[in-house]
Every structure is written in structure tokens, then in C-alpha cells.
Write a structure and sequence with these properties.
The protein is an alpha+beta fold and 237 residues long. 17% of the residues lie in helices and 28% in strands. The chain has 5 helices and 10 strands.
Length: 237
């Protein structure tokens, strides 16, 4: 189970306890090192009991859905069915590195992706960290909140959660580039994202937000103690 024998994004078929045929993938939805187990339903309870029993000496704990949601949002992990759907391309959500465009492998949609790569995308998945939001007094974002760039509507959020590491609310969503004259969509560039001043509208009140196209660097380098998180990373990047 070490990284040398089980690299990230690999999948193997393994046995757990008396259950065989368990598909184990070296990835998680929270952005932390770990594994996902795909278990035949008849083995589910047995595998759970085995993992919980062996895991006691490692401090294993059950984690609720909202805890996992918070962890994946603060690490800028998109969620299928909520952030992404069949109309989203890898180039629009920052997952182009997962697509083998240059290795001569043909697949459905390859020509369309190559054309989009050449022409540019018309929406870009973006992370927003709320600046002036009071967690105790203000309404919390959930999803579907309007996103404003320099006072102009550019999209809406698809996921939101409170980040216990950053001690801020974090929203994910797609930014569009609408022409002020015609309203038609234009190409969204990295420069377009980085040069804007953003606000998230929560129940009619706009809150300032910092836009990021990549996870906060301090979350990658200091994942264990929130005291180590450099909140200065939120500004100027």
C-alpha cells in the first residue's frame, strides 16, 4: 500500500478480510492521501467492520458527509453531478492534465477538445474565498449564489462550504466572460480571472471574495495544523 507500489490514481483488485474482489483506488474526494474502496454490497458490512477494527490503533474515526464536503471544497476538488456534468470539458474545470491529447490515443471528443484548446474556453472553474463574511452573523452560502466581477454578473456558485483550515467560507463556481455590449460569451483567460474584483451575492448581500484557479498553497504544504496555515496566501495570489 506504499506509494512506490500503489501510486496515486492507480486501481487494484484486493482482498479485505474474507471479502475478495474489492476494487481499491488510490485517491480520495477530500484531497488527502488515501484510498477509495468499491465494495460488492454483500461484503459491505464485513469490510467496514474489518477496517474499523484494524484501524483502531491508528485512531480511525467515522466522518460525516459535511466534513468530507468541507475538506474537498477547501482543496478545490470538483464534485461530479454538482460542480461537473456531461456538458463540462476538462479544459473548463482545470483537469486538462488528465487527458492524453498528445499521446496519439483517439477517443470520442478528442477533436473537439483540441479545437477548444486552440480557441480557448468560455467558462472557467474558479475557487472563491470570502473576505468580509461574518460566519456567526451572516447567512452562509450553499450553492447557486450569483458571482460578480467588477460589478458585472459572470456566473454562479456550484458548491460552498466553511473551511475549518482557512477559517473562511469557500465557494466554487464557473466564471463566464459576457460582452458588455452584446452579452455574448467571450474567451475566459487566466488573466481575465486574476485581474477581476469579485463579489458573491448571498441572499441579496454581496461579499468580497478572492478568486483562485489553484488550491491555496498553504493547504498543500501544511495540511495537519491550521496554526501553520499562512492566511497571507489568500491575498495577492
Amino acid at each position: 500500500m506504499t506509494p512506490d507500489h500503489f501510486p496515486s490514481l492507480f486501481c487494484k483488485e484486493m482482498s479485505v478480510g474474507y471479502a475478495n474482489g474489492i476494487r481499491v483506488m488510490s485517491m480520495t474526494h477530500t484531497g488527502e492521501p488515501g484510498f477509495m474502496l468499491y465494495i460488492p454490497i454483500e461484503y459491505a458490512l464485513h469490510v467496514y467492520n474489518e477496517v474499523m477494527s484494524v484501524g483502531q490503533k491508528y485512531g480511525i474515526r467515522n466522518a460525516g458527509y459535511y466534513a468530507l464536503r468541507s475538506l474537498r471544497i477547501e482543496k478545490f476538488f470538483a464534485f461530479w453531478g454538482q460542480d461537473l456534468n456531461t456538458l463540462t470539458t476538462p479544459l473548463e474545470c482545470g483537469r486538462e492534465s488528465w487527458v492524453k491529447l498528445e499521446k496519439g490515443m483517439d477517443f470520442i471528443g478528442r477533436d473537439a477538445l483540441l479545437q477548444q484548446k486552440q480557441n480557448g474556453v468560455y467558462k472557467r472553474f474558479t475557487m472563491f474565498i470570502l473576505d468580509d463574511h461574518d460566519t456567526d452573523l451572516d447567512l452562509w452560502p450553499w450553492w447557486g449564489e450569483p458571482i460578480y466581477r467588477n460589478g458585472q454578473y459572470v456566473g454562479k456558485t456550484t458548491s460552498s462550504a466553511y473551511s475549518y483550515t482557512l477559517e473562511r467560507h469557500v465557494c466554487l463556481g464557473f466564471v463566464h466572460n459576457f460582452s458588455e455590449d452584446t452579452g455574448e460569451e467571450q474567451v475566459v483567460t487566466t488573466d481575465f480571472i486574476n485581474r477581476g474584483e469579485y463579489e458573491i451575492d448571498i441572499a441579496g448581500h454581496r461579499f468580497q471574495a478572492k478568486a483562485k484557479l489553484y488550491p491555496v498553497a498553504s493547504l498543500v504544504t501544511h495540511k495537519r495544523r491550521k496554526d501553520d496555515v499562512e492566511l497571507s496566501d489568500l491575498h495577492g495570489k
